[in-house]
Amino acid sequence: MGLETIFGSGFITSQLNKIINWGRKNSFFPLPFVTACCGMEFMATWGSHYDVARFGAELPRFSPRQSDLLMVVGTINHKIAPVLKRVYDQMCEPKWVIAFGACASSGGFYRNYATVQGIDRIIPVDVYIAGCPPRPEAVLEGLMLLQKKVEGEDVLNRGAPIMVNGQAYSEDRLVHVEPPVDHRADQVVASHEGPGVHPWQGFEETERR
Questions:
Q1: Dihedral over alpha carbons 29, 116, 103, 57 (to 10 degrees)
Q2: Distance CA 154, CA 16 (A)
Q3: What gap in Å lies between CA 52 and CA 68, rounded to an integer?
Q4: Are 101 and 61 in contact (CB under 8 A)?
Q5: pLDDT digits (tens, 9 = 90+) for 35-90
Q6: 3-state class of 40 per DSSP?
Q7: CB of 105 within 8 A of CB of 158?
Q8: CATH class of 25-194
Q9: Bridge partner residues of 96 (DSSP)
Q10: SS3 for 120?
Q11: How far is CA 105 from CA 19, 123, 155, 177, in A?
Q12: 108, 75 in Cβ contact below 8 A?
């Protein structure tokens, strides 16, 4: 904006933070990235009974260009991970992410080679909602937690890097995600090759050969 160079970090900019963040926290435009059964709970929460309009988030947008809240609802496997990252990168700033349910937060009970063990290994996450599936009350609590987080953000400070899986987030490449390996069967599968590397995990073609 350039206001920090004019007014500094005094009274005017602090009041500007409050006004802008008040508008942002009460006007979320969620994009539901639904892949599994948690979508049923998402639809139940966004029905008329729970009145999500109280939080200003009653209008889901199905285009990343028109959204500022990405709700990842369901299991994310390694094959769909590049699509999720592309959707996140296409969203305009400011943007926030909610991991909806156990599978999006930690992989859930899918502890295998095909499932990403938490979307925070791919994109930054602001709020985690536990449950399999989470109850609507838990989803509303997650929305209120996100509102509190947005309320305390500094609108003018964009210098802090976003960290994903211990590395600085980059739009150019995905952070390497290690598939979980069960070592209890090493003596059985010792003659087989090691786990393959997914082509989207940030390796060049020459490094994979």
A1: 0
A2: 10
A3: 16
A4: no
A5: 888 888 888 888 888 888 888 888 888 888 889 899 999 899 888 888 898 899 88
A6: helix
A7: no
A8: alpha beta
A9: 69
A10: helix
A11: 31, 12, 27, 14
A12: yes
Token digits for 154?
């500094």
**What share of residues in the chain are helix, strand, coil (percent, to 5)?**
40, 10, 50
Q: Can you give the pTM of this predicted structure?
A: 0.72
Q: In whole angstroms, how far apart are CA 71 and each of 163, 167, 194?
A: 19, 22, 34
SS3 readout for 58-76? CCCCCCHHHCCEEEEECCC
pLDDT, tens digit, for every residue of 167-196? 666 655 554 444 444 455 455 444 444 444
Residue the block writes with tokens 């909610």: 98
Tally the residues of the chain.
209
The per-residue pLDDT for range 2-41, each reduced to its tens digit, is: 555 555 556 556 777 788 888 888 888 999 999 888 888 8
